[in-house]
Write a structure and sequence with these properties.
The protein is α/β, with parallel strands linked by helices. It contains 8 helices and 19 strands. Strand 14 and strand 15 form a beta hairpin.
Length: 368
């Protein structure tokens, strides 16, 4: 089977990986594979799932806007309409069952690859959420108790703060090292890369004139160039720095929305959740953790455009021989192995739908 994958971010790379392991002949189209994914903190945190289409999330975003943490510059209009029409609507139970399975799959996939060879700074040492205000900490604790994932967690003291919530089951990686690892494995699996923009013909199953048996669209926020899907961009920023952290292990400052992950040869600092498609860099990300991290040399920095669905759930589905995989928002890395696996299952015809996760794709069948 010959498959063309549009998009070489982490979702596209993982999809190509699972397809190639099943014997498919795979070609990935992307001018710079992995480039728009490596900005992420590399926290594998599927249990920290946020439903976006809730009043509480909107209030949280408004609070972030007032404090200058986030900005709203551009939103996909279809995404806005869908968000408002589904506000506070509960997803079906089968959606949570799927997400729990995807969380388990992804956590185990990274662990297994690290057991084979830990060349991407895999750490299975948990994640700490840090709270400034006691009332927010108490609210966070109650939310975890009600979480559909039923995660293991413990409330802990954090000097200088109201406290923290520690998730012992979560892990982390170095994103740029993982991209190098998976790219090497794809080369061994004979996956071809075309470092060019893709122009797919979804009816004729061609990409830049080359014929395929199936096409996978895994090009993040840019998927709306080809299909009417409610996906919008929430931009994030990542920096690789030399320095030292006052806190051992990875942590997230809840008030500022900044993640810090000390790795073997650098510290990764990631922040930002702005509705933005622009190329401008935010200069204040590093200063938001200045009391917790002593930043020395800035080795590198990058940005990425998180593809967000209206409710935060991934969008994975199938239209004839076209498979779509996008929409996981800030949890793209957390769910990437599972998203790649399930997308490959759809391509190979082992599944035709993923239920609720496929709803936006299947709605296209009835669109004019």
């Amino acid at each position: 089977m010959k498959v063309g994958v549009v998009g070489g971010g982490i979702i596209g790379l993982m999809t190509a990986y699972f397809l190639a392991r099943e014997g498919a002949s795979v070609t990935v189209y992307d001018p710079a594979p992995g480039n728009y994914s490596v900005h992420a903190a590399g926290l594998i945190e599927p249990y920290r799932f946020d439903r976006i289409n809730t009043t509480s999330m909107i209030v949280k975003m408004l609070r972030f806007m007032r404090r200058g943490v986030t900005e709203v510059k551009q939103l996909n209009s279809m995404w806005v309409v869908e968000l408002l029409s589904s506000l506070n609507k509960q997803p079906p139970q089968e959606a949570w069952e799927m997400m729990r399975e995807m969380a388990r799959f992804s956590l185990e996939a990274y662990a297994k690859m690290a057991e084979e060879r830990n060349d991407f700074d895999y750490y299975n040492d948990g994640l700490l959420e840090i709270y400034t205000r006691k009332e927010d900490l108490e609210k966070g604790e109650e939310e975890e108790k009600r979480s559909p994932f039923s995660p293991k967690f413990e409330v802990t003291e954090v000097p200088g703060f109201a406290g923290g919530i520690f998730f012992p089951e979560l892990s982390r990686i170095a994103t740029e090292k993982f991209v190098k690892r998976i790219t090497r494995e794809l080369a061994q699996l004979k996956v071809s890369f075309r470092n060019e923009e893709a122009s797919p013909d979804l009816n004729g199953y061609t990409i830049n004139g080359e014929k395929f048996d199936a096409i996978v669209l895994a090009n993040g926020v840019w998927i709306t160039k080809f299909l009417r899907l409610p996906v919008t961009s929430f931009k994030g920023y990542g920096a690789w720095v030399k320095g030292s952290s006052k806190i051992k292990g990875a942590f997230v400052t809840v008030d500022e929305g900044v993640a810090v992950s000390p790795l073997s040869d650098h510290i990764k600092i990631t922040g930002g959740f702005s509705a933005d498609y622009g190329s401008e860099w935010r200069t204040d990300i590093l200063s938001k953790v200045s009391g917790l991290v002593k930043v020395g040399e800035v080795i590198d920095k990058n940005m990425g455009f998180r593809p967000c669905s209206p409710d935060g759930f991934p969008i994975i589905g199938k239209l004839d021989n076209v498979v779509i995989a996008t929409g996981a928002c800030r949890l793209g890395w957390s769910y990437a192995p599972a998203m790649g696996y399930y997308a490959s299952e759809l391509v190979l015809g082992r599944r035709n739908t993923l239920g609720y996760i496929s709803r936006y794709v299947e709605r296209l069948r009835s669109s004019p």
